[in-house]
Design brief:
Major capsid protein gp5 fold; hypothetical protein PF0899 fold; 2 domains; five-stranded mixed beta sheet
Length: 333
């Protein structure tokens, strides 16, 4: 599947005839037990050249994954040891129990509860972007002692990172049967509401503060008590850097960060215009499933004259709610 920005999402699917891949690279992985190093072993690049690519990839990922980085830093990640060999992630949603019994003797027979389990699932696609280098350019770089041009690797890494970040907020259309990827703005049980004024432009500091307090109240109404991260787009971010009130000694952003329950405010270009999201940073609300950290692989065509590269990762958000429909996500528009 190809997205509008040129990023591809490959799939490996199973049927009665076995496993089948949707691309050449996926076929190589399928033939090597899903070991990503199969696309780096005996490759044309030297160690120093791989180091240049990997260094640039890490640099770009840090710049373009602020929300994903925040989730992982908060311990909200779920690592899969064989991400390339896992196409569907399944987990159980557990029902709640009645409140505990209270008695003076402790021997009165309490209500016998039985937990119910609902099986949930989501697909784990590969996010990747390809680029090529002619072997003559590589040889010229070596002959002249010049560093390998990493501009293509940086752009490919940026596009993969942006798609990874976008999935957290918007989800993705990839489906395998009933399994699909939900984002913060598409999860069906999230709390929704309306901004009292457009945060992107017209809202005053007082109005934004009122909306944030209302969002906290909505989350608490679902028994979600924080800590919270506030996600805004860049026009809202810029507006929040204005004075909270006329001639104030603090900005609206500073005032919002004084609320004890708000742990951080993160800007993202993927938050839709005139919308805001508040997210409880706990594992029962969201975690980032990490099957493969961003990496670069290589193969050859045209008799070795053309070197093909693929920046790829498996990093997918798992957005959750309780069996009773309670969610730690509040989405205002």
């Amino acid at each position: 599947m190809q997205l509008a920005n040129g990023v591809h999402i490959d799939t490996i699917h199973a049927d009665r005839g076995g496993l089948h891949a949707s691309s050449n690279v996926a076929n190589v992985l399928l033939g090597n037990g899903f070991n990503v190093n199969a696309l780096r072993t005996n490759a044309t690049l030297r160690k120093e050249e791989w180091l240049q690519f990997d260094t640039k990839l890490i640099e770009v990922a840090r710049q373009r994954l602020p929300l994903v980085t925040a989730l992982i830093a908060a311990g909200l990640s779920f690592n899969i040891s064989d991400g390339l060999g896992t196409t569907i992630l399944e987990w159980e949603q557990v029902s709640d129990m009645e409140p505990a019994d209270v008695s003076m003797d402790g021997v009165s027979r309490g209500e016998q509860d039985i937990l119910e389990f609902t099986l949930l699932s989501m697909p784990l696609p590969i996010i990747h972007k390809d680029f090529t280098i002619n072997v003559r350019k590589l040889h010229a770089s070596r002959r002249l002692g010049q560093p390998l041009d990493t501009a293509q690797a940086a752009l490919a890494g940026r596009l993969v990172a942006e798609t990874t970040e976008s999935m957290v907020i918007l989800g993705h259309a990839t489906r395998v049967g009933a399994a699909q990827i939900f984002g913060l703005t598409t999860e069906g049980n999230r709390s929704t509401g309306a901004q009292s004024a457009d945060w992107d432009s017209a809202a005053t500091g007082d109005q934004i503060l009122t909306d944030v307090l209302a969002m906290i109240a909505d989350a608490q109404g679902d028994d979600m008590y924080g800590p919270y991260v506030l996600l805004v787009n860049y026009p809202s971010w810029n507006n929040m850097m204005e004075d909270f009130k006329a001639a104030s000694d603090k900005t609206t952003m500073q005032r919002i960060k004084e609320i004890p329950d708000i742990s951080n405010i993160i800007p993202s270009k993927d938050v839709p215009a005139s919308e805001s999201i508040m997210l409880q940073m706990t594992s029962d609300v969201i975690d980032e499933v990490v099957g493969l950290q961003p990496t670069t692989v290589q193969w050859e065509t045209q008799g070795g004259m053309m070197l093909h590269f693929k920046v790829m990762s498996i990093m997918i958000p798992r957005v959750r709610s309780t069996v009773t429909g309670q969610s730690g996500i509040v989405h205002y528009s």
